[in-house]
Amino acid sequence: MHQMNNLRAVDLNLLVILEALLSERHLSRAAERLHMSQPAVSHALARLRHLLDDPLLLRGKGGFQPTARALELARPLAEALQSVRSVLGGAVFEAATAQRVFRLAMSDYGAALILPALLRRLRVEAPGIDVAVSYASRQAVVAGVQDGEIDLALGVFPQLPEQLHRETLFEETFVCALDPASLAPGESLSLQTYLARPHVLVASGEGGMAAEVDAALAQLGQARRIAVRVPYWTVAPEVVMGTDLILTVARRALHGSAGQGLALCSAPFAIAPFAFEVIRHRRTDGDAGIAWLRAAIATATEPG
After folding, report:
1. What are the structural domains, with CATH classification, of the chain?
2. Parallel, antiparallel, or unpaired: how do β-strands 100-105 and 225-230 relate?
3. Is pTM beyond 0.70 here?
């Protein structure tokens, strides 16, 4: 059986190719990422199979499926290559000339807050950088960061595996949005009115921000009536207009035109604020590109 016991027998480029194949799980995409021809990547895969005495990747629907051996290798391989890149000068990242795809995960709330300013900066300072944005359940996003399929994820993450790092971008508070015509002149939003009125809830998976509101009400022994559930932050303010509905929402969700025409009131009970965070795997500690992007994201969340 072939074993990788002798480092002199190992071509480091093969390991870089294996990393790309395990990440992309598609021959042509891996070749494009590596700036290599597809036949060259195919030949490298054949050498890797011989070297490791394992098929590594088996053809399946839509691409390759990794073998059990390949899945075992994925994480230590990524961490080892990151260390090598750092030693060999991988800490250098020239934004103006870099060509790279960053894979981000965030909800439409996070995207509305961050992407416009972030992409304006990227187009000026890093025109060769591409961004692929996705979103799934919180559990799936965390798993994607762990597996290396997502570079950075933005959102609310109460619990994380120890391999993941978190950084707070900002602390968010809540506000109640209503149609101004639904309040009498000079009327403030009392708890009695709040409980008597129907509510809009943005259900964006696993409780999310709505859970904080309902938990605060539960502490008072109260509950609100959810008359409308929608999965989108962007439509929720428009649903409120012309109705007696109340939307209790993260304040920044109503930035710019999103809150135009609505009456914004403080909630008539205490709701704990929450931290909006960016998370990453510790394997990216020496990745200067990820560090640059994290700083750009932090700048994009700053007011003004």
Report:
1. 7-87 (1.10.10.10), 100-170+275-300 (3.40.190.10), 174-272 (3.40.190.10)
2. unpaired
3. no
